[in-house]
Structure formats: C-alpha cells, structure tokens
Amino acid sequence: EFIGKYANKKYKIIKKIDKIREKSKVYIIKEINLKIKNSLNKLNRKSIYSIMFHNENDIKIIKKNNLSFFLDSLKKKHIVKKVGISIYSIDSLSKFLKVYKFDIIQIPLNLFTINKEIIRKLILLKKKYKFELHIRSVFYQGIIFKNNLSSNKFKAIKNKLTNAKKISRSLNISLYDLALSAVSINKLTDYLIIGINKLSDYEKLKRFKKTYLDLKNIEDLYISPKKIDLRKLTN
Questions:
Q1: Are the C-beta atoms of residues 106 and 89 closer than 8 Å to each other?
Q2: b/e for 44-70, b at 16 or more Cβ within 10 A?
Q3: Across 20-122, where does the E strand assignment appear?
Q4: In what order do the strands lie in the sheet with 132-136?
Q5: Does the pLDDT at position 35 exceed 60?
C-alpha cells in the first residue's frame, strides 16, 4: 500500500507468489489470479513487471497441471510483463526451464559461491533460453561484513572471509566493492538485488565502482554448497 501510494509508476515491481496451496488446476489458477489481483489493488496499478515463484515445489505443480498456457495468458493480457522463478541452486535450473521458459531467473551468488563452472553453465543456459538473471544474497545475507563469526556453523567460512579481506586490501578496494564486483559479470548479470537498512547503505551503493576481477583473484574463496548451507547459516 505504501508503494502504491508513493512509488513512481516507472518502477519495475516484482510480485513474489507465495507457495501454491490449492491442488486442482482450476483452483490453482484462481489462487494465483487472486494473489495478483490483491497485489495490483494495493499497488494501485493495472499491471506489474513480473510475478515470481519462489518455492521450487511450485515448479512441479506448474508442470503437473500444465499451467504454461495460463502463465502465457497473463503476459498476453498485459497483467504482467514477465514470469520468473527464484531458486536456491542452479543444479535444477535446466530442468525448470524445460517446464516453462521463465523470463527471469533469480539465484543467490556471491564471493564464496561463484566459480568458472557456475558461470559457464549460466552463460550457456542464458544464451539458450534468453532469460534475465537477477542475483541475490550478494553479501551472503550480511555474513561477509560480520566481525565475530564465533559459532561453529561459520567454521567453513572464517578463513575464506579473512582471505577475502586480504584480496580487497591488495586491490585497494573495499570488501563491499569486491563483493559487488565479483558478481557483476558482463553478459551474465542483469540485476543485483541489494537489501538496505538505512540511507547510508544506499549512499554506499551509489558510490560503488566496479572493479574488473579475474576469477583467479577469487577462485580460492569458493566453498562447495555441500559444505555450507546458507539457509542454515541465517536461521
């Protein structure tokens, strides 16, 4: 409601669709339509940039109920411009894109989870399916800036974070700029999703200057997802 009242109409708004509760196709469509309608009413708009599914089980529901026609109809009616998904890992991305040709893919990616193989996979998939790539968790849910990582659950990341700070000093840039530069990859990243708590965070973001990084600079920072689960770290 606040956004609907005060935000510039030019802003691109993405509505995340809560986990689908209904079981039958007719009621699933009604559920999604109702969620979009309620959101549009609050936003005081007739359309939005995108809806985004952010529960991976919903992809199975879309496949099982053959909802591609319905999702396409939302775009044809200009209710939404794009349909996207927010996922945790790229391992299943190819499979998801075969269910529906999603326009936007949102994934977590940062200093500790990026490597050449991941970049190669994403570039190939993006070339094939022509999706927009939105990257979240750029700062590892703020863990990158924590000074006290005493808990055992942070054990795998402590040394990597120390090395990241050394790299930022050697390049004469802040850890903040290093983290952003690492995922600002030409021809791959379309948008970075950055959370801010206060105006000074926004001012810092405005001052950001991208630094070219050879992956060799940061390849030793990579942590296998098998060793560390971001969802467990932040709970």
A1: no
A2: ebeebbbbbbebeebbebbeebebeee
A3: 48-53, 80-86, 104-108
A4: 14-17, 48-53, 80-86, 104-108, 132-136, 191-192
A5: yes
